[in-house]
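Dear colleague,

Thank you for sharing your sequence with our group. We've completed the structure prediction you requested, and as agreed, I am returning the results in plain text so they can be pasted directly into your records. Please verify that the sequence below matches your submission; if there's any discrepancy, let me know and we will rerun it promptly.
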Amino acid sequence: MTIMMGLRQGPHIRLLDDIIKVAARGGCTSLISVISQLLYLFRLSTPNTDELQTFVTALEKLSDEKILMKTPREYLKKLIAAFKSLDHAKSDFMIAFLKEIKCNKKLCTTNKIVIIKGKGIKDKKCRYYLKYAFEFQHPLSETCTRTDSKCGFILRYCRLIWGYQLLTQWDDYADTGIHLHDIISTRGMFWYETNTFYIKGKKITVAGNYNWWNDWFFGLTDLKDDEVHVALDMTCLLVAKEDD
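Please find the predicted structure tokens below.
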């Protein structure tokens, strides 16, 4: 079970309609990925009001059809705070757009998505892998009585596939302090990173699933290690179990 990063920025994504087409055919599953791509596009050009409204309406339709997972409000708050600290001609535009998404109940949620911070685990098997452990007690495993380790899961990032894999073998969890329940699924699961750095002595925290901030922010210093987070759509997790 794999969680792909989602949309890649690049020449194949140049218009808002390109994002909708990729999302509609399953090329990305979360609005987190869509927003990261928008941060790339909006730096290149600014859409007019009609184009933006058509785009938002299309996103609402994909969200209603459960093709796109809503974005957590906490994620948008980090982006808005970052752009408030940015001296850029398009800062006001970005802040207004992100606030519009944050207030849109079809695209943003506060209580249906759980955000979990991962803890890095060294993987000596292959230089292409990075592993992260997440403590998480699924609602259907609340009666777990194990005391030797915490409920949760481990994701392994592979650069070759540009995504994360859910580890399911018991030996993957040995000596990690985490144990896995078979009800855990990657359905309704999406990852992103947060990074903290300084610009002219001002501390800024950004979030996303590619380094869009290198295109917007200049003079970055004292960059801290990436923190990996997983956004879990609890509705999808429960439905996934019912479907099994």
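Summary note from our side: Confidence is low (pLDDT under 50) at residues 7-12, 240-244.

Kind regards,
the structure core
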